[in-house]
Each structure stands twice: as C-alpha cells, then as structure tokens.
Write a structure and sequence with these properties.
mainly alpha; 4 helices; 79 residues
C-alpha cells in the first residue's frame, strides 16, 4: 500500500460526506430531517460532516444509521 498522507485521508472523508449529501438529497431529506431520524437534535453535525468542516466526519455507527434511513447499502458512501 502506498504511503497515505493526511491530505489523502481528508479527501476520502470529503468523498464520503459528498456521497452522503448526494444520496440524502436524492431521497428528498434535509440535513435536519436526516439528523432527527438518526437521533440528533439539530443538523449541525450532519452539515459539518458532509463538508468535513473543522475536521468533523461521520463515524461508522453514523454511516450505518444513515444507510438504514436512506435505505442504501453502506458501501454507497465509499464509492
């Protein structure tokens, strides 16, 4: 495996966030709708994770919950 840089890792997290946002929008959900459905009280974490703001990112549990809400295979977020 090649040496991964911090930039490579951040780009991958950005890709995941963009895929979550794309699939969320395709399903007609706002960030707040999605946040509430996975047990959050506001959209701030969803919005931050979708764009990797201040290095916020989705963890595997959040991605699993989101995949269940959006009715997609979790692998779709990594493509």
């Amino acid at each position: 495996m090649e040496n991964l840089t911090d930039k490579d890792i951040k780009e991958y997290y950005l890709k995941i966030g963009k895929n979550v946002a794309k699939i969320r929008k395709e399903n007609g959900l706002s960030q707040l709708d999605l946040a509430l459905k996975i047990g959050h009280k506001s959209s701030s974490q969803i919005s931050s994770c979708e764009i990797c703001y201040k290095n916020y990112r989705f963890n595997i549990e959040q991605l699993y919950r989101i995949s269940c809400v959006l009715n997609v295979d979790i692998c779709e977020f990594f493509k």
